[in-house]
Design goal:
The complex is a heterodimer of chains A (459) and B (87).
Chain A: H1 2-6, H2 10-18, H3 24-38, E1 53-56, E2 63-68, H4 95-102, E3 105-111, H5 145-152, E4 158-163, H6 169-175, E5 178-181, E6 201-206, H7 209-219, E7 249-253, H8 263-278, E8 282-286, H9 294-309, H10 327-340, H11 346-366, E9 372-376, H12 392-397, H13 403-408, E10 412-420, E11 423-431, H14 436-449
Parallel strand pairs in A: 2-3, 2-4, 7-8, 7-9
Antiparallel strand pairs in A: 1-3, 4-6, 5-6, 5-10, 9-11, 10-11
Helix pairs in contact in A: 7-14, 9-10, 9-11
Chain B: H1 5-22, H2 57-60, E1 73-75, E2 78-80
Antiparallel strand pairs in B: 1-2
The chains are: A alpha/beta (459), B alpha+beta (87).
Amino acid sequence: MNRNLIGLTLLETVKGLEKRSFSLEDLNKAYQVRIAEIDKHSLLSNSKLLNCYITVNSDSNGIPAGIKDVFSTKGIETTAGSKILEGYIPVFNATVIEKLEEQGISVLGKANCDEFAMGSSGENSGYGPTHNPWNLDKVPGGSSSGSAAAVAADMCVFALGTDTGGSIRQPAAICGVVGLKPSYGRVSRYGVIPMASSLDCPGTITKTVEDARKVLEWISGPDGKDANCTKNSFARSLLTKLKNLHGLKVGVPREYFGKGLDIGVEKVVKGAIKQLEELGAKTVEIELPHTEYGIATYYVIMSSEASSNLARFDGIRYGHDRNLFGPEVKRRIMLGTYSLSSGYYDDYFQQAAKVRTLIKQDFEKAFEKCDVIVGPTSPTTAWNIGEKIDDPLAMYLSDAYTVPASLAGIPGLSVPCGFVEGLPVGLQILGKYMDEETVLNVGEAYENATNWRKEKPKL
Amino acid sequence: MPLSADEEMAYKDQLSKVLDYVSQLSQVDTSEVEACFNVSNNSDVLREDEIKDSLLQKDALTNVSKKKDSVPSDRQGFFAAKGVFEE
């Protein structure tokens, strides 16, 4: 019984509750048992340990969701994966938490993440790395590491993450679940511990594309507290439910299939694109010529904004001393303050902001020829824990396919599309600014035509 | 930000590598390009000037240290911080 409950999608869970097939109490108990079995180190057993959660909320009594630990949750410890915030208990909820609670969702646990959402592997958490449910020696991706691994391991019905340069899409891809980064400004950032304010996007990690659509309906829309979030809530258009993809033009950027892409991943993603053609889509080759500058542009802009945002952690009103920042946070503060300092501003920050315009224009031109753009989410599958930790640049390059869309502010979805040597691969679907609808329609049509989501890690 | 000697050594190499990498941005001709600092194109987003509930003083102070002589701490409803000026 418990086993069946935790395997359900969000929509199945809602339906089961409506039909009274089980109660919220049953549901929460099932997830608490699951977490106790596989998440944390226990002296009494040698069971497998994922370390997806920093804090588990034993009072959860709604539909249980895993919430990345950068979202402020009233009365529940919120650390952003940093020792500097250990013991910090917010006195208010992030807007998205308020919106979820109105829908009967409750915080099951605060999901582990790279410190202040800085990282691509989950290893930068002050509370130990999260492990990939498909292979415990591998990273789950990051920075929404615990959120993605918890969904993949059935340790929550769905999860919230944040995506600044790929932090939802990339871990979702390499944990084999669905990750949605909405358009910048679609979802309020109020109450989200900030990293890079012109890039941060709260979004969803779910078991299906349908679930992602539902959660986006719930969490999107203005709250009067985020000046960039002024557009209407996302609502499904009843007119455009697609059964197939006839008439849809899918752009394939040649820059996303070049050097650095793993051969196995390439094969799987090309197979997925073929499947989109079989569903009726027409593929067109497109160019995103400034892709090669994406990582450099992103790391200058992101670290500049992050260095400014992190100045608030002075340990006076809350939190601890700055010597508790981890290495990646320190690196980004140094890189950011350097890029912004007088004498370097024009060459670094200003120049990066100009290249950002070119990257954004690449997408605008490409979308004149196609409705969505598809390619790999991550150039490789999950790598070994420890493999890239001392080589920050190698780590940064693993975000090459997710960062450009972040700079342009457009929506992106990662959908499971196969495996290489037992490790999941994600298909990335990018759309026009504020056109989550088409992105989700394509993802859903693909998902319905394949069985990848039914594969589960053996835990 | 406090750094140990070992940290300085490690970061020197790592950051040099990263700076070398990002310096490729100088190859891009941006003479005719405007900078993009925000993609939402919103500006001057205002709201009615209404009085709204804000944090109570006691709530705002719940996350500072409760220990008597520690700094920072909550002293009679205020944040007490470390001294900045020499006496």
